[in-house]
Amino acid sequence: xxxxxxxxxANWQTISGFRALKTExxxxxxxxVALDSVFPxxxxxxxPKELGEIYSxxxxxxxxxxxxxNIDVTELRSSGTPKYSWGINMDFVIRNLTNKKSLFGAIKRxxxxxxxxxxxxxxxxxxxxxxxxxxxxPGLLKVIRDASGISDKILPFWVVxxxxxxxxxxxxxxxxxxxxxxxxxxxxWRDIENIGDMLDFFENNLLPRLL
Length: 211
Hints:
7 strands; two-stranded antiparallel sheet; alpha/beta; globular
């Protein structure tokens, strides 16, 4: 598929109307319209639920259980829902309904840095982005990959960074160093008014893995 297919066929009049939405809603709605324009009824962009209990349903050894404050993780509330529900909360998943492949993702905003000194404000550390990078841990990579069904040649998630961090010279260097050869799994959406840039990144780097 040509790299400009989204730009040629997407309903830009509809997409332009999404600029009034908050960033996450703008992202998901725009991506859904663009996908529908090229692949009608084949993709769905939504909030995932299947990773919300991966910690609470995991098992520990008897040796560990004997040494910690243990609970019955199968206990239910009066409503019938799990009392303990620990997992990861991804912002979106892009599902190919035809081949069942999925790409999970997170949108992270980081604001607050001093242009004069290129240092971050004390009240806005990089912890939001750093917390997202725990997706690189072996256990999470395995469970997300099993749920995604995509090739092991690429990570099974997409992290979209927005806000001041996308222009911060220090943080750009840090993040580039962290992700290195996995740079196709991380994008800097520096101008959230420019929806085309976000769609181009997805089409050129990630869409092929979902087909």
